[in-house]
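Re: the request from the purification team.
They wanted to know what the chain is likely to look like in 3D before they choose a buffer screen. I agreed to run a prediction and write the result into the notebook, where they can find it.
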Amino acid sequence: VEAQSGAVRLADGADALADGLATADAGIGRLAEGSAQLSDGIAQYTGGVDRLSAGAQGLSDGVDAYTSGVDAFAGGVQQAAGEIGTGLDAAAGGLQQLDAAIGQSSGAAAQLLAMLEADPGTDPAALATARALAGGLAQLEQQDVAGSLAAGLGDAGTGLA
């Protein structure tokens, strides 16, 4: 009886072992599927990291190019400001010459008018023209056109600085 009872327990144990092995086999299959999914996920992750790295390098290159462009632009602005300043200085000198020329022309026109008025034989049309010329130059001299232009140039130069 004990042998028969042991045989029944052995058969029950063999059935339990078979059931356990079937469960283990199913678990191993799920483990293999999970491992394959994990491998695919890791491959996607590393591909993303590679793309991120390439993007970061592209961004870095873009920042370098932008910085170089800003430096070049700033240098160009400084050069242009210097050249404009030099041009404004030259224009200011030219305006001083213009002011002197207006003063000289106004004086010469006044002298010419005085000579024409002193000559009784002067053509009245020439006398009227000389008066208009002398009057216009006197007004121009009083308006200080060159001074106004020089002040405007000075303001422009201050704005550039």
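For the purification team: The mean pLDDT is 89.
Please add any questions underneath this entry.
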